[in-house]
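Hi support team,

I'm opening this ticket because the web form for multi-chain structure prediction keeps timing out on my end. I have pasted the exact lines I submitted so you can reproduce it. The total is 732 residues across two entries, so I didn't expect it to be a heavy job. Is there a limit I'm missing, or should I split the entries? Thanks in advance, R.K.
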Amino acid sequence: MSTWLHLARGPLFWTALAFMVLGLVRQLGLTLWETARVYRRAGDKDLPVGRVVRETGSWLVPVRHFGKRWPYSLTTFVFHVGVILVPLLLAGHVELWRAGLGISWPALPNVVSTTLTLLVIAAALALVLERAIARASRALGRFSDYSLPLFIAVPFVSGLLVMHPTWNPFATDPTLLVHVLSADVLLFLVPLTKLSHMILFPLTQLVSEMAWHFPPDAGSRVAETLGKEGEPI
Amino acid sequence: MATPKRYAYHVEAAALELSDRPRRFLEAFAAILRHGSYNLALDTYARMSAKCGRCAASCQLYEATGDPQDIPCHRSELLLRVYRRYFMQSGPLKARIFGGFTLTDEYIDEMADAYYRCTACRRCKATCPLGMDHGLVTHLARWVLAEVGVIPRALVVSVREQLDGKTHNTSAIPLPALKDTCEFLSEELHDIYSVDIEYPFDVEGSEYVFFPAVSDYLMEADTLMGNAAVMHATGASWTIGSHNYDGINYGLFYSDRVMERIVHQLVDEVGRVKGRKVLVGECGHATRSAWHIPTFIGPDGPPVVHCIQYAHQMLELGKLKLKPEKIPESVTYHDPCNIARVGRITEEPREILKAICSDYREMTPNRTKNYCCGGGGGTVSIDEIRAFRTGPLGMRKADQIRDTGAEIVVSPCANCKKQLRELCQDNGMEEVQVMGLHDLLLKVIDFGTDGGNGAGEAQEGDVDEESEPTATGAASSGGVGVTASAQSGAAGGPDGEEG
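Hello R.K., no limit was hit. The queue was backed up. Here is the completed structure from your submission:
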């Protein structure tokens, strides 16, 4: 067991982390590169920067967008807050970073982390339930849309049990192994799935705006490529 | 031309030739991705789309039908699936491992149906947490479909006349007929308001070159009289170009390639008459297309001014004088998506209406969150889908209008007005009048003349009865429009379609 744990916490974790970071950096780099290319080729270079920044900001803290489906929106919001804060600011995790790399930052009190973890687990279940109940999201839902929230909940459930041994009906080491392994797999999945929005999200409003900034001669060039120049309408 | 029925809308025979169509679709898609600006957005959407379904709650069509096919995200997924399979690096690999999707004729038919059920109003964009612009995907998908010939005949026939025809306008109005119409409108203005207003043609060096939706010359005489009256009353330097007098640009609805050519044609006309600015009439998509002048021409293209922005500015500067009397009927305002969705023109029309109407009512939601009239994205020109437009697609707008209880709906857009009239007719609201903003403005402009009692013809939509018997306004929109059209002898659209 300790060998597996060592493997999961050591080489597997670092590989998964590197895969995630490099994958996201690649996606960020490609997106920024392509954004710059679209801008360079655009006929109209006058971007509504203020509107794009406002819209991006409003979705980063999307309280005013809750609207009619507020239970779903609230669940999603809570889920995201927990998923971002707990892995980064859990005292145990901060201590691991300090021990491993000698860097540290302020941690959340354990009671807050525990509360957030419980909220993430509840929100993950609620998200799946709400998706299955709401007609539109049920119609749109793919396998990954159901499985990802549930899979994200696995390291949170196992982490909670590790933090609170009295709640844990299983042995500590296997629980810890599930916690670390599921987290490793999750890190692998980030750049390969819609979870990549964790890096691309702040760019999406800009990306949508940029698409309307056509190159001045795109139409003519398409006609040329398709051999349709001079072709009557 | 009679063609076998394949889609809800009529298409030309070439669209029904299926040979090798998936390959041609993919070649066109590849060319557009290579030369256009869509790659970035599709790549981002394809990676991140969360399928949360929030967009469904904002789509008036899905609200009406409840059909999953009408969820904006589902519609976008149709094209994204093609993109993932054929244009992302992982596409072939996933296809090899998991099997699955292959582009077929049936799939193209499904897209052809789906992307013309959407008006590309872009209301759903504001509700997508990931910022997906489903209107953009519809816009792109229609272009790719157009390259394999799938275009509603109503649109392509008009564009053919505009780009390759003799008249260079979508309604096929010959210049002599247009000039006759303008003379007739001048006479009407003289008879009703005792004011001499000319429609100037080819006046070199004018500040403004006027491009209304050319169908206004057939259908919206009051709007055009209002336009001319505002320009006259403010002493503007303006002209109509005799080689090109049509602001309509259906390229916006189905092909950037077409849009590019029409914008060039418009700017060439401004150059020919040595004009300085483009003045767009009351037409939403013409305005949005003209805003693309910097896209196709660059920063040195002529600036674009919408006629409402002009009138509003003149009112603010005190150059446009109004009579003290106000329009007595209850009036509400419909925001055309193409000018309001991103908030470019929302306040000016309201400020004008509040200044000239005694009972202005707001419909809810409005401005950037407005509902589409149900005829956006060119669908209003497709008469064979009228029942769909005024049924599920326009139902929400009909409810909005009914809720205001207004007697007049104002919308500064030729397409919206046509759709709103049909919507009112088909939804038991025949008593509601639909008109342009300049139609109303015309009734209250102070020309400084004593005339303007309309020869005693009491008309609906006149100024307050308690007011002095000055302007009765032009005859009702329909009346003048029909008379003007008959007078001009202008033909209808090139294939019986109106622009």
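A quick check on our side: DSSP finds 23 helices and eight strands in chain B. Let us know if the file doesn't open in your viewer.
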